[in-house]
Amino acid sequence: MNNTKWRECLSILASHCVYLQLRLLDEADFPLDCEVSNEVIAQIQTTDCVFVKRVIAYKSIAALRIIKTDLPPSANALQVDLMTKLKQALSQLGQLPLTEDSEFITINGYYSESN
Predict the structure, then answer these.
(1) Residue 17 belongs to some domain of the structure
(2) 54 strand-pairing partners
(3) Do 105 and 98 touch, CB atoms closer than 8 A?
(4) Residue 95: is it exposed, middle or buried by C-beta count within 10 angstroms (0-12/13-18/19+)?
(5) Which of 1, 19, 94, 112 could form a disulfide with 34 if both were Cys (CB 3.0 to 4.6 A apart)?
(6) Is 33 a domain residue?
(7) CA 26: distance to chain centroid?
(8) How many domains does the chain have?
């Protein structure tokens, strides 16, 4: 996925309180632990961002997984359907390489010669 789409996706995720996992290109699978999106995504720049106090280049992201079955304790209880709001916000970005099942929303990276 190009830098602009990653930046837009991560900006949306940073404004919501959901658990997520990030898999980089050199990793075989997602990590076992998950992070609270609005607490660990910061400094969203043109080509990279800070994720869990580590600078991550967008081009090194293989996939990002949002956990649907559990919300962090800090999630606002008044947000009746957080996943619906999140999916609506992401859909406003246009076509994304997104898959969804009963447990996860997964945004996959895709590659372009321009990245």
Answers:
(1) yes
(2) 51
(3) yes
(4) exposed
(5) 19
(6) yes
(7) 18
(8) 1
For the four alpha carbons of 51, 89, 2 and 97, in that order, the dihedral sign comes to positive
Going by pLDDT thresholds of 50, 70 and 90, the confidence category of residue 95 is confident
Query: Two tokens at 53?
Result: 């106090």
Strand (E) or helix (H) holding 99 = strand 98-100
Residue 115 lies in a domain: no
For residue 114, is it within any domain?
no
* Closest alpha carbon to 99 in 71, 62, 66, 70: 66
Instruction: For residue 20, count other CB atoms closer than 10 A to its CB.
Output: 22
Q: What is the CA radius of gyration of the chain?
A: 13
Q: Domain of 10?
A: 3-108
Contact call for residues 23 and 60 (beta carbons, < 8 A): no
Place of tokens 């090194």: 60
User: What pLDDT, in 10s, does the model give residues 65-89?
Assistant: 999 888 887 776 555 588 888 989 9
Residue 38 neighbours by CB under 8 Å, 6+ apart: 13, 14, 15, 16, 17, 74
